[in-house]
Specification:
Layout lengths: L19 H6 L5 H10 L1 H9 L10 E6 L2 E6 L2 E2 L1 H10 L7 E6 L5 E5 H17 L7 E5 L4 H13 L2 E4 L6 H10 L4 E5 L2 E3 L2 E3 L1 H9 L7 E5 L14 E3 H5 L11 E2 L3 E7 L7 E6 H15 L7 E4 L6 H13 L3 E5 L10 H9 L3 E4 L1 H10 L2 H4 L8 E5 L5 H11 L6 E4 L10 E2 L13 E2 L5 E4 L11 E6 L9 E2 L3 H9 L5 E9 L5 E6 L3 E4 L2 E4 H9 L4 E11 L3 E10 L7 H14 L8 E4 L13 H9 L12
Parallel strand pairs: 4-17, 6-7, 6-8, 7-14, 8-11, 11-12, 16-17, 16-18, 18-19, 19-20, 31-32
Antiparallel strand pairs: 1-2, 3-13, 4-5, 9-10, 14-15, 15-25, 21-22, 23-24, 24-26, 26-27, 28-29, 30-31
Helix pairs in contact: 2-3, 4-5, 4-11, 5-6, 7-8, 10-11
The protein binds 5'-O-[(S)-ethoxy(hydroxy)phosphoryl]adenosine.
The site of 5'-O-[(S)-ethoxy(hydroxy)phosphoryl]adenosine has 22 residues, from α11, β20, β26 and β27.
Length: 632
């Protein structure tokens, strides 16, 4: 944790106010009142939210808080897929469009709720036929295709714990995650498409499982019809062959509210990624409530979140949340600038998207290429805009508001984390928006900015962002490392420590400034400095490496690596390329340093820890702060 968060706020306040109808018609039509009601009776508040969902058995108590462990909806039984699918299939949404998928080449596939329900059930039965049982870990390493969501829902149906690994991760990163979760089955595809290129996912999986002895079976979605990849039957099964002949009814596993639901890995400040464990009941309630209230989701909305389901945003706000509210979800495999920078706006026009949720890095890329791209398309269907993953800087906010929202659509800049499972801080629809500030904690959440002792810092002063009360969708543990879980709650006494630096203004609006630890957020992806460093150090020529984040106008941050070579190794362009290649293959393209500098020494503490803070200050030409622990 960095020592110094001495930042001050310039109080030049500029609010944007959406038209009054937004507030009048919103599910949360009065933020102040809703927040006060929550504070007066937190348990009653969450109980009311839980009543919007169907349960197989009700809870005996809403919340049991045994610091730092919380249990929610204790004794209740449920299956989230019942609320995502069966409930809608049984009512007027049976034939409503659940999913519209657009492929990289513009192809389209549509699933109604009924069709999605059938496919999920058949695949779930298929998984059961492979011997997958409640509690078994299943890794999903897939491109953004409907089958990715189907695989997730099928695991949820039978109570298998999914660990979705983003399809951009390299073999080494995949192996680490497969082993940490003691994965039994991997679901993948032959290829993913990216900007017209084919990414051979199955090859990466076949590499990754060599060192993952727990893996018994690989299920492969074969997309290439002309030259289908071979299936090696002793280990591999075809996705659709597994479904063939399976009944399309599959009794949902009856889950306890506190049963583990899924594991999702996030970068840690040690080299080892943390398997964040979420629980069935609380996650379901948190995902449903926030999807409904933060986006103000209505039955006729066409909703598009551009995140890959491989990240938490995709779990909660592509798959589970929007399906629970019975929404129509757009799923897109393509990138924002392929085949041209109008790709996203064309989709919004074609499909009449009303709620659009994306990342600041994409918005900044669009700003750079110019307004002529969105201006070619009719964006009048849009009603609500969202942002997630990193701070939405005021310039990007204003551009998004004016050029995409035409000065009409509220923007929800949502702050949250893999660990929180659900959105925590934003500006609820209809409330005045302050550019650069995510907003206030949503009703249901108690957030604050504090010093290391957990005391609130005065308005306008920087501090640590914390959550003071447990919330239903909070992580329950870190898989296989409960001590790491306790650190979240025990570092600052009595508070959940998010790891971000923030400032609160006098109205309680929170601006998130960035990470306070050794994570770097590059284009919205969390990358641990230690992960990149260990990938670099595993190269035979490297003795030591240190990695820092440098501000980048597009990506938020970029990675710079400082490398000490082993004796007898000479710096060269060739070696730089080799190191880049090493990181790309081990971790994936998004973790690649954009700059590598060969150095003779690294600043260290007397106990030998690399002081990245000093490297960063030197790099940016700013005051490095306290140097008393620096070794001579
Ligand atoms: C950052 C993504 C500023 C933050 C949902 C957090 C944000 C980390 C915002 C979690 C936002 C996310 N404004 N920063 N609206 N949203 N972050 O686990 O540093 O991939 O701690 O979850 O992203 O990233 P994660």
């Amino acid at each position: 944790m960095e020592e110094d968060f001495d930042v001050r706020l310039v109080e030049e306040v500029k609010y944007y106010r959406p038209a009054p109808e937004y507030r009048k018609n919103a599910w949360t039509d009065d933020y102040e009142r809703a927040y006060a009601e929550f504070l007066a009776d937190p348990v009653g508040f969450w109980e009311r939210q839980a009543h919007h969902l169907e349960w197989f058995r009700p809870w005996d108590s809403v919340r049991e808080w045994d610091y730092p462990y919380a249990r929610w909806f204790v004794g209740a039984k449920l299956n989230i897929t019942h609320n995502c699918l069966d409930r809608h299939v049984a009512d007027h949404r049976r034939n409503k469009v659940a999913l519209i998928w657009r492929g990289d080449e513009g192809e389209e596939r549509i699933y109604t709720y009924y069709k999605l329900w059938r496919e999920v059930n058949r695949f779930a039965n298929g998984l059961r036929s492979l011997g997958v049982k409640k509690g078994d870990r299943v890794c999903i390493y897939m491109p953004v295709v409907p089958e990715q969501a189907i695989a997730m829902l099928a695991c949820a149906r039978i109570g298998a714990v999914h660990s979705v690994v983003f399809g951009g991760f390299g073999a080494q990163a995949l192996t680490t995650r497969l082993n940490d979760a003691e994965t039994k089955v991997v679901i993948t595809a032959d290829i993913g498409y990216r900007r017209g290129k084919r990414i051979p996912l199955i090859t990466i999986v076949e590499d990754a499982v060599i060192d993952a002895p727990s893996v018994e079976r690989i299920v492969i979605l074969r997309r290439q019809q002309e030259y289908p990849v071979d299936i090696h039957p002793e280990r591999e099964t075809d996705f659709y062959e597994l479904m063939e002949g399976q009944p399309f009814e599959c009794a949902p596993e009856v889950m306890d509210a506190e049963d583990p639901f899924f594991i999702l890995y996030t970068s840690g400040s040690t080299g080892k990624p943390k398997g964040i464990v979420h629980a069935c009941g609380g996650y379901m309630v948190g995902a449903h409530y926030t999807t409904r209230h933060v986006f103000d989701f209505k039955d006729n909305d066409v909703y598009w979140c551009t995140a890959d389901p491989g990240w938490i945003t995709g779990h909660t706000y592509v798959v589970y949340g929007p399906l629970m509210v019975g929404g129509t979800v757009v799923l897109v495999e393509g990138t924002p600038d392929y085949p041209d920078p109008g790709a996203f706006w064309k989709i919004i026009e074609d499909l009449g998207v009303t709620i659009f949720y994306t990342a600041p890095t994409a918005i900044r890329m669009f700003m750079k290429v110019g307004e002529q791209w969105p201006d070619k398309y009719d964006l009048r269907s849009l009603r609500v805009l969202g942002s997630v993953g990193e701070p939405l800087n005021p310039e990007a906010f204003e551009w998004y508001y004016r050029v995409i929202g035409k000065g009409r659509c509220p923007i929800v800049d949502t702050w949250w984390q893999t660990e929180t499972g659900m959105q925590m801080i934003t500006t609820m629809i209809g409330e005045p928006m302050r550019p650069g500030f995510a907003g206030r904690p949503i009703p249901g959440v108690v957030a604050d900015v504090v010093n290391k002792a957990g005391e609130s810092v005065p308005a306008g002063t920087g501090g640590l962002l914390v959550i003071r009360e447990p919330w239903p969708a909070m992580l329950r543990t870190v898989y296989g490392d409960d001590a790491r879980y306790r650190q979240y709650w025990e570092t600052v006494p009595g508070c959940y420590l998010a790891g971000d630096l923030a400032i609160k203004d006098k109205d309680g609006y929170i601006m998130v400034i960035g990470r306070a630890d050794d994570l770097i957020i590059v284009s919205g992806h969390n990358i641990g400095t230690a992960e990149v460093e260990s990938a670099l150090v595993s190269h035979h020529a490297v003795a030591e490496a240190a990695v820092i984040g440098k501000p980048d106008p597009l990506k938020g941050n970029q990675i710079k690596a400082f490398v000490i070579l082993k004796l007898g190794q000479a710096p060269s362009e060739r070696l730089k390329n080799d190191l880049v290649y090493q990181v790309r293959m081990m971790l994936g393209p998004f973790a690649v340093p954009s700059e590598i500098e060969f150095v003779d020494t690294l600043p260290k503490t007397r106990s030998g820890k690399i002081m990245r803070r000093v490297l960063k200050a030197r790099e940016l030409g700013v005051d490095p702060g306290d140097l008393s622990t620096l070794e001579e």
